[in-house]
Amino acid sequence: MNAAGQAVSESVLQAEPEAVLAALERALQEHALHDRALPAATRLLLQQARDALHQALAEGESARLRYHALFDAVPDPVSILSETGIVLDLNKAGIRAYHRPREDIVGQPIETLNPDLPPDHLMPVWETLNRGETYVIEVTNMRGDGSRFPVEVHSAGFEHAGRRCIVAVARDLSGRWQAESRYRLLMESIDKGVILLDRNFVLLSANPAAHRILGAGLEADLRSHAEEWTIVDEHGRVLPADQWPPQRALRTGQIVPSTTIGLHHRPSDRMVWISATTVPVFSSGRAEADHVFVLFSDITDLKRDSTLFDRAQSLAHIGGWEWDRGRQRLYLTGEALRIVGLEPGAHAMDDLLARLRSGDRHRLEAALEREFGQRTGFDLELQGQRGDGHAFWIRMIGEVEHGNHVSPRIAGTLQDITERKQAEETLRIQARTDPLTGILNRDAILGELDARLGEPAQAEVAVLYIDLDRFKTVNDVLGHAAGDDLLVRTGQRIAHAIGTEGLLARFGGDEFLVLCDGNERAHAPQLADAVLQALTRPFLFGEDEFTISASIGIAYAPTDGTRPQQLIQSADIAMYDCKRRSRNGWQVFTPDLAQKQQDRLQIETQLRRALDNSEFRLVYQPQVDLRHGGIVAAEALIRWQSHQLGELRPDLFISHAETTGDIVRIGDWVLREACRQVREWREQGLDFVRVAINVSYRQFVAEDLAVKVAETLREFDLPGSALELEFTERVLIEDAPATLRTFAELRRMGVVLTIDDFGEGYSALNYLRRLPIHGLKLSQLFVEGVPENRSDVAVCEAVGAIARSLGLDLVAEGVERESQRRFLLELGVPVGQGFLFAPGLPPDELARRLANSGTRPAG
Question: Pfam families per the record (predicted)?
Fold first, then answer.
């Protein structure tokens, strides 16, 4: 090669390709211009070099274009850095990301993009690149406006033109950071628990809700602390470990949807119920799940409420039901199945209908059909029978399910009301039945009578009002238990006597009512005779034998009343008249009896005002020594001069006062007035006079009689011997400590105690012996028949013998004839009173007689 060729070669080897090509083109042109012939070999070599260089430049330009296309196509910012960190190049994504022109970045140090880098930041980069690895770091870059954004930078090394360079790809993390922030915010704010477990049940993460729900028992390694937990299913049954939802999700690789489980942490004795969805998590390239997410809600309160609701339904015997008419399916809850006696499983409406009685089955079918058309709801009480034969009552409420127009469903509740219905029936029977005798009671017979009077065809009815005579005697002598037994047995006898001819009820204490047909006037009296005949047989109580009778009043509708109370009142008036006249008989109501009843009511009304109007006065009947005729004492007798009614007989108004209870006030007045009069007589010099007053049984039991007498005697400065108290035989049967104590206190005061009208009652000598009394009064009922009537003579002789044997004084009442006085003297009766000697005298008249005729000491 000549010198020129050598020079060209050297210039080609040492120059850039574009400069070498230009030199070659210039050399060839100059040699051609000056017509300098080059050796053929040299010329050929230069031409070949030129052509090769042309091709090389063309290929380089193509490569450069491809490089820039790829460089700018990368979506993330890409920077080419020199070994010392100078930016050699930057793609278009970087220009957009940093909001700067290219010339402001290229040729500048990397700190232009990231001002927070430390001075030796390239040292760890080159250490990693020299090992042939990629360096990754998260840093914060800065845009042209000074704003920052997070990036993840991946750096790799390469050589360019013999120099070491770095290519750095920066990925903008702003979106990921926002997503992660939102995720973290979501996990921290939701009320759902979220935990992440690995295959060994090591707890990798848990959100705050999970800690709050599971509490202190949430451990890092659930498997190692499994003995502290008991996991149960929704029914409270313990779940084996292989049935835990996380185990199932890991084993099957499938999601385990909402599952109710209970977690009992034994150390803290805390029970938590959750509804959990378990999701298996697969790592890249793995065929089996290696993690599991558990998303759960705290349903402890809901479970408790549900359990309480189920329990309440069971306790209240309420179940639920739903009928899908389209599918002909009937759904019943467990409690509903129990109520109607059906087994669990699929059912049709016919299964329930078959349990109901025929009439109620048709009612339910009609209600269901009507509900589909009218949609108004229904509420039925139905009766049926279970498979075991037990009857039941249910209350069934239903309505069409709203919003379902394609296949309407009816749903509602089904309540067991068997106990309520049985109780209602029991109450209905009890409400109509007298609990003692088992026959109809007052309300029931009034209802029956009201119903019959309301029907014109049945308006001819009769009522028999039955009142037992002497019942109080049995009740008082033998006690209330015997009295109750007597009422039961009397009711049985009356029921047998009337048979099916009448309707019997117990109307009051010892009062019965019979309701019968009144079309035949003779029918009611015939039933009355049958009742009286049934009571003639004695009633036996142990060794004691008692005979009772009845007084019966009869009234007819509509003649004697068109309303129940009016008709019964008429029968009561007739009964009262029968009892007053003779007892042991019957009496038909008449208008005259109604007038008498009106008079009685008028008497009772005026009686209540008599004391306040000062209408009472006392007269005094002398008690006389039958042998010598001297006055030994006097009995105070009450008289009533009514401003409205005039003079009324004592036997008429005293019985009314006993019935109304006014006798207590009247008796107190008599005691005080008699003592006042004795005080007045004593002041007149009649110191020996003793006054006897009658004490009602009502007065005896209504107050502390001994205290009342003591206070009255002190008020008028009288000794007890100035007063004699006469009691009826009824007090003899009050064998109570209080009765004995009252009599003893009165006797200690010196008060004379006498049993009045002895022999009329039914007292026993045993009671007479126990009471500390002074004497007996022989009843006028027996005295008036002596000495002619042998029965009366026998009674008087018996009473006299009793008095002598017990050391009691004896006074005869109602002495009206001389023959009676002589008989009584021969009998040994020392004292008597009656019209033979004097009627009841005004106080002044008695005082005058005492002064004129003289007296004998009492006793």
Answer: EAL (PF00563), GGDEF (PF00990), PAS_4 (PF08448), PAS_9 (PF13426)
